[in-house]
Specification:
Length: 113
């Protein structure tokens, strides 16, 4: 992970990542998500940029956000990212490699009515 002062400011938030386990072949039931990363450094979670939005297609009742993590974390599509200071839970829609050993996370948050 990057250790400079700039990177410590950039990855100023913390998150927990949960991953659903595989479906049990005997019962056909998926267990509760398990924590795969605790206190993971992450950039602030912001509304998605227009550029990224143009690359995504969605017709669901969700808001899209984006954040970045360093490439040492193996985040998968379908993981949950829980922002620790707000406890908001985002679904990972599209983790994408990004220049500079980073991963861009496109995140979904269910719209509130």
């Amino acid at each position: 992970m990057l250790k400079s002062k700039a990177s410590s400011r950039m990855f100023s938030n913390r998150a927990r990542v949960k991953r659903p386990p595989p479906v049990n072949e005997t019962t056909g039931i998926r267990g509760e998500p398990i924590i795969v990363y605790e206190n993971m450094p992450i950039t602030p979670i912001d509304p998605i940029s227009r550029e990224t939005l143009q690359r995504q297609v969605t017709d669901s009742p969700i808001d899209l956000y984006e954040a970045f993590v360093t490439s040492e974390y193996k985040i998968l599509n379908g993981d949950d990212v829980i922002e620790l200071h707000t406890e908001r839970t985002f679904k990972v829609r599209a983790p994408m490699d990004w220049p500079g050993a980073q991963i861009q996370l496109v995140l979904e948050l269910q719209k509130t009515t």
